[in-house]
Write a structure and sequence with these properties.
The complex is a heterodimer of chains A (318) and B (337). With 318 residues, chain A is mainly α. Chain A is 71% helix and 3% strand. Chain A has a single domain, classed as ABC transporter involved in vitamin B12 uptake, BtuC (Orthogonal Bundle). In chain A, a hairpin with a 2-residue loop joins strand 1 and strand 2. The longest helix of chain A has 27 residues. Chain A is globular. Chain B has 337 residues and is α/β, with parallel strands linked by helices. Chain B folds into 2 domains: 155 residues, Response regulator (Rossmann fold, 3-Layer(aba) Sandwich), CATH 3.40.50.2300; 165 residues, Rossmann fold (3-Layer(aba) Sandwich), CATH 3.40.50.2300. Helix content of chain B is 47%, strand content 18%. In chain B, helix 2 runs parallel beside helix 10. Classes of the chains: A mainly alpha (318), B alpha/beta (337). At the A-B interface, helix 2, helix 9 and helix 11 of A face helix 1, strand 7, helix 7 and helix 8 of B.
C-alpha cells in the first residue's frame, strides 16, 4: 500500500462517527435518552443480534455470507430449552447440547461450501430452511416456558454505580473483545483476512484455505448458539419463532459496521457499532414518539450510505 | 456450472412437488372426493397450525381431500400466489386462504374465472367469494370496554403495542380497542391506527416476544407511569409483561390482548394477561371445508361474511362487562393444552 496515501481511515471511523452523531441528536431530542438506565437497555436489546453479527462478520470477511444465522439460533434455543424442561437434563449440559447443534450446523455450512463447492449464499439459503423446518417440527410450533434459573442467568443484572448492567451485555462485549484480539494479533486472524482478500493467493502462500473456511463457519455456528442462550435469557422462554428477522438484522449490523461484503476488509468492532446504531434509532425514535415505520426507512438509508462509503474508500485517492 | 446444477435441482424439485400434488388430487378425483386447498400465512404461528388441524379433521369427516400450503412469513403474498396457482392446477375447486395482503386478488380473480371458489379465512382480502373470520374490530372493542371499566375512572395512560404498519388486522384490533375504551377511533375499514393524547406511546411489536419486550422497554423509558397496555396478540403481551416485570411495574398495569390460544389463557391464569378476546380458528377452518364440500357437491358457492365469534376471557371479572372465566377459556382454546 502506498504510504503517501495514508489518510484517516474513514472506513473504520465512519460507524463510530455515525453512532456519535446519532446519540447527540437523540440527546437533544429527549432528556430520557442519555441515562445509564436507557443506554443499558439499548445494549440488552441489541445483544442477540450483536453476538450473531460476530459470527456473520467472520464469514463475511472470508467473502462469504450466512443467511441461516437467525434460524440456527432459534434451533439452538429450542434444543437447549426442550432438553432441560422436557427431558430434565441438567441445564448446563442442555446448553452445551444446544451449542453443539448450532456449531454442527455451522460445520455443515462450511463443509458444503468447501467440499461440495457451492456458493455460501445458496448453501445457507438451503440450511436456513432446513433449520427452520427442524425447529418447527421438533417444537411443534409451541414455546418452551418454565425454564430453570441457570438457563436465564445471563439475563440477570448487577449494579454499576446507579445503573443496572446485564450479564448478557457483558458477555457480548467480552466476545467482541476476544474476536477483535484474535483477528488483529494472531496468525489465524491474519489467515482469515488473507483468505477473504484473495483465496488463491492465500493458498499459494501455504494457507489451508479449506480448513480456514470450515473453521470459520463452525465457529460462527458456536456464536449463533451463544446468541440463542442470550435470547433465551432475555425472553425467558424457548421460542421457535424467534430469529426470523435476525438473519438480515445481523447482516445489516455487519454492513453498517463498515465490513465489506466482498471480503478481506473490515473491523469486527464495527459490527458491534452497527448493531448498536440500529438499537439506538429504535429506542430514540420511540422516545420521540415517531412511528416505527421510519426506523425501517432510516435503517435502509443507512445501509446504502454504509456500502457507498465502503465503495468510495476502496477506490480512495490515487 | 454450479448455478446450472442448482437450477436443474430446483426445477426437478418443483416438478416433483407439482406432480405429487397432481397425483394426490387425481387420486381424489378418481375416488370422487372434493379437493379443497388451505393456504395459511405461515406454517409456524400456532393459530394457523390449529386451523390446519381443524381443516384436516373436517375434511376427513366429510370425505374431502385437503391440500395445504403456506407463505414463508406474514406478508409473503408471493408465496401464497404460487400456492394458489399450484393448488388450482392440482384440481382444487375451493381454496381457503388467510391472505397476507390484497396482492393476491388478481390471481384470485383469474382462478374464479375458471370456476374456483376462493374463500377468505381470518383475514379479508378484496374479491373473496366469502369471509369466515373473527370480527377483529369487535375483539378490540371487548378488551377496550374491559379496560375502561377496570380503570374505574382513573386517568388513563395507555401504551399500544401493535403489529406492523398498514396491516388490516392490526389496525382493526387497535381501532376497536380505542372505540371500546371510549376514545376517538377510525371504523373497521381503516388501515390507519387512531391516536389520542391518552395513548402515550405507540410501538410495533411484530407479534414477536423479543421485539414486543424491546418496544415496551422503550415505551417505559419514554413514560414510566402507565396503567394500560393493549397488545396485538398474546406473544406480544408476554414480551410486554417481561419488560414490565423487569422494571418492577407489572402490578397495577392492565394488559389486554387478543387470540385466546391455550398458551395465552395459561398466561392469563398466571396473571400475565388481564383480559383477552378469544377467537376460533378451528371453527373458521371447519366452516371453510364444509363450504368447499357444498360447492363441489351442489355447485353452490358461499358468500358474505360469517362471524366465527369472539369471547372475552378474564380471570378478574369487572362489573358492567360480560366475560367468561379461565376454565371456559381453556376448554375452548386452540393450541397445545
Amino acid at each position: 500500500m502506498n504510504s503517501t496515501s495514508r489518510h484517516i481511515p474513514w472506513g473504520a471511523l465512519g460507524p463510530w462517527l455515525a453512532l456519535l452523531a446519532t446519540c447527540i441528536f437523540f440527546t437533544l431530542q429527549s432528556d430520557r435518552f442519555l441515562t445509564g438506565e436507557n443506554l443499558s437497555l439499548v445494549l440488552q436489546q441489541v445483544m442477540v443480534v450483536g453476538v450473531l453479527a460476530i459470527g456473520q462478520t467472520l464469514i463475511i470477511l472470508t467473502a462469504g455470507i450466512d443467511l441461516s444465522c437467525g434460524m440456527v439460533m432459534a434451533l439452538g434455543s429450542v434444543i437447549m430449552t426442550k432438553f432441560a424442561v422436557n427431558y430434565g437434563i441438567n441445564p448446563y449440559l442442555a446448553i452445551v447440547c444446544g451449542l453443539a447443534v448450532t456449531t454442527g450446523f455451522g460445520l455443515l455450512n462450511g463443509l458444503l461450501v468447501t467440499r461440495v463447492k457451492l456458493p455460501p449464499f445458496i448453501v445457507t439459503l438451503g440450511t436456513l430452511n432446513i433449520a427452520f423446518a427442524i425447529t418447527q417440527i421438533y417444537s411443534g410450533a409451541q414455546i418452551i416456558p418454565n425454564l430453570p434459573d441457570a438457563m436465564t442467568a445471563l439475563g440477570n443484572t448487577f449494579s454499576l454505580g446507579s445503573t443496572e448492567v446485564s450479564l448478557g451485555t457483558v458477555t457480548m462485549i467480552a466476545l467482541y473483545a476476544l474476536a477483535w484480539f484474535v483477528l488483529r494479533d494472531t496468525a489465524p486472524g491474519r489467515h482469515l483476512y488473507a483468505v477473504g482478500n484473495n483465496a488463491e493467493a492465500a493458498r499459494l502462500t501455504g494457507i489451508r484455505v479449506d480448513r480456514v473456511l470450515v473453521t470459520v463457519y463452525a465457529l460462527a455456528g458456536l456464536f449463533y448458539g451463544i446468541a440463542a442462550l442470550l435470547s433465551v435469557a432475555r425472553t425467558g422462554v424457548g421460542d421457535p419463532n424467534a430469529g426470523q428477522t435476525e438473519n438480515l438484522d445481523a447482516i445489516t449490523a455487519v454492513v453498517l459496521g463498515g465490513t465489506s461484503l466482498f471480503g478481506g476488509r473490515g473491523i469486527i468492532l464495527g459490527s458491534l457499532v452497527g448493531a448498536v446504531i440500529v438499537g439506538v434509532f429504535r429506542n430514540g425514535l420511540t422516545l420521540m414518539g415517531v412511528a416505527s415505520v421510519y426506523q425501517t426507512l432510516i435503517t435502509g438509508i443507512l445501509v446504502i450510505l454504509a456500502v457507498a462509503a465502503d465503495q468510495m474508500s476502496r477506490k480512495g485517492p490515487r | 456450472m454450479k448455478p446450472a446444477i442448482a437450477q436443474t435441482v430446483a426445477r426437478t424439485a418443483t416438478r416433483l412437488a407439482l406432480s405429487s400434488l397432481a397425483l394426490a388430487a387425481a387420486s381424489a378425483f378418481a375416488a370422487g372426493e372434493p379437493v379443497i386447498g388451505l393456504i395459511t400465512k405461515t406454517e409456524t404461528n400456532p393459530f394457523f397450525v390449529k386451523m390446519k388441524e381443524g381443516a384436516e379433521a373436517e375434511a376427513k369427516k366429510l370425505g374431502a381431500k385437503l391440500l395445504t400450503a403456506a407463505g414463508k412469513s406474514d406478508g409473503d403474498t408471493a408465496g401464497q400466489i404460487t400456492a394458489l396457482e399450484n393448488m388450482a392446477a392440482a384440481g382444487a375447486k375451493t381454496i381457503l386462504i388467510t391472505a397476507s395482503g390484497d396482492a393476491i386478488s388478481p390471481t384470485v380473480r383469474k382462478l374464479q374465472a375458471k370456476g374456483v371458489q376462493v374463500i377468505a379465512l381470518d383475514s379479508p382480502f378484496a374479491g373473496a367469494d366469502a369471509l369466515f373470520a373473527t370480527d377483529n374490530y369487535q375483539a378490540g372493542v371487548l378488551v377496550g370496554q374491559y379496560a375502561r371499566a377496570a380503570l374505574a375512572g382513573k386517568p388513563a395512560r395507555i401504551v399500544t403495542l401493535d403489529l406492523l404498519p398498514g396491516h388490516p388486522v392490526g389496525a382493526q384490533r387497535h381501532n376497536g380497542f380505542m372505540k371500546g375504551f371510549g376514545l376517538p377511533a377510525a371504523d373497521a375499514k381503516s388501515n390507519e391506527l387512531s391516536r389520542d393524547p391518552a395513548v402515550v406511546c405507540m410501538a410495533d411489536s411484530f407479534g414477536d416476544r423479543a421485539k414486543s419486550q424491546t418496544a415496551m422497554e422503550n415505551c417505559l423509558q419514554k413514560n414510566p407511569e402507565i396503567n394500560v397496555v393493549y397488545t396485538i396478540n398474546e406473544p406480544a403481551a408476554a414480551g410486554a409483561f417481561n419488560a414490565l416485570k423487569k422494571a418492577g411495574k407489572e402490578k397495577g398495569v392492565l394488559i389486554l390482548s387478543v387470540d385466546g390460544g391455550c398458551q395465552g389463557i395459561k398466561d392469563a391464569a398466571a396473571g400475565m394477561i388481564t383480559a383477552t378476546s378469544q377467537q376460533y380458528p378451528l371453527k373458521m377452518a371447519a366452516l371453510g371445508v364444509a363450504a368447499g364440500v357444498k360447492y363441489a357437491r351442489d355447485g353452490q358457492k358461499s358468500s358474505g361474511y360469517t362471524d366465527t365469534g369472539v369471547t372475552l376471557i378474564s380471570a378478574r371479572p369487572v362489573s358492567g362487562v360480560d366475560s367468561k372465566d379461565i376454565n371456559t377459556g381453556m376448554d375452548l382454546c386452540w393450541g397445545a393444552k
